[in-house]
Amino acid sequence: MVGLPARGKTYISKKLTRYLNWAGVPTKVFNVGEYRREAVKQYSSYEFFRPDNEVAMKVRKQCALAALTDVEVYLKEEGGQIAVFDATNTTRDRRDMILSFVKENGFKVFFIESVCDDPNVIATNIMEVKLSCPDYQGCNVSDAMEDFLKRISCYKNSYQPLEPDGYDKDLSFIKVIDVGRQFLVNRVQDHIQSKIVYYLMNIHVQPRTIYLCRHGESEYNIKGRIGGDSGLSSRGKKFAMALSKFLDEQNLKDLKVWTSQLKRTIQTAEALKMPYEQWKALNEIDAGVCEDMTYEEIKEKFPEEYELREQDKYYYRYPSGESYQDLVQRLEPVIMELERQGNVLVVCHQAVMRCLLAYFLDKSADEMPYLKCPLHTVLKLTPVAYGCKVESVFLNIEAVNTHRDRTEEGKKGPSPLMRRNSITPFASPEPLKKPRMGSFDEFSASSSVDASVSMPSEMPTSLSAQNVRELPVL
Description:
By secondary structure, the protein is an alpha/beta fold. Helix content is 38%, strand content 14%. The chain has 16 helices and 14 strands. The strands form four sheets. The chain has a seven-stranded mixed β-sheet, sandwiched between helices. A three-stranded mixed β-sheet has the order 4-5-6, with no helix packed on it. Strands 1-2 form a two-stranded parallel sheet. α13 packs across α14. The chain is globular, with a radius of gyration of 25 Å. The termini are close together.
């Protein structure tokens, strides 16, 4: 990271790290400010950041070196693939030190510079984030604000921005100008850097709310069957009406509604009496040959498959179907579009909702398949400074409980006998699977569509994180 204080570097670092980890690229933030607070227990004032404070300058350099040492350990010994070096790095000397470290270790480097001169944005950032940090505990707001502005001034005099047409023309970097108003990209060299650039060019900081919910209870939910394309039960239809009333009470402007292409989400959205978009990417996880079956039937007919999935639910792939890892990759375009949009309601399915929720709440792959996403409950997500606030709203329509807790077998971890998952080839012939949506065309022809429906264009699927072999530092 590169930039003056209060320019959103830590916000970008944390958000980018959350995205990359969700996408399957092990990433960790190394915030030099935390190293400094560990070395200097009691913060006094902005004087510590004066460029002529030689003692403090030595401490700050040692903190940066300590962080880089931990970066090396993370990338070489702990299985990390990307380390985000979160510091100001505002001088060429400091960036040259990073470049030397990268060269010595055979890493790659990509700089992200956040540039902002809008006083309102800076003041908002200071008020929302900086004044609540440990440096200003017990300090009144006006004094803290004054001290932090002086801290920024300490950096301004020596600040050397990245120069795409001069000293830094051979470096790979992106300049994010005025919180995404403008971007300058220089020498992107691989697909991970391209992935980062694409992500940063889609995020924004405008206030908005994202609503996640499952379709209303379906006939298959009542029967305990998975997958398929069944319609709503009577209680599911009541939920659809309750959802419409709930949205009216929210008094949202320009709300967009997204559904899958499966009947139960479409029927739920129909009751809202507003335009909606169908996304094939939002279809429920494909259970392959296990579609339309109950878990008891799967256990009886495919006992080995049942046990394998219990052992590692994230990586296990249904025969001729998908794993949660596959589903995450399928949902990446949805996440990108959610980051671009304002208020959105996503009417989806249990596994899909778990994947989306894991992104916003920064949940691990191990936790993701067990997140609770009950029927007839809306999760209201409000992005905040370094995370997301969640409010769960039950709409008072009873429904079956489809959640399955992790078994004791699952708690033991993956079995060495795992043969069918997202990262190993199939070891046996795959049985034939039933068509996923055999009744959809018939349903479409016989249903009256009151709301306008539009189909978003398909976006390219991203490369699997398992093809990543470089160890970049940002």
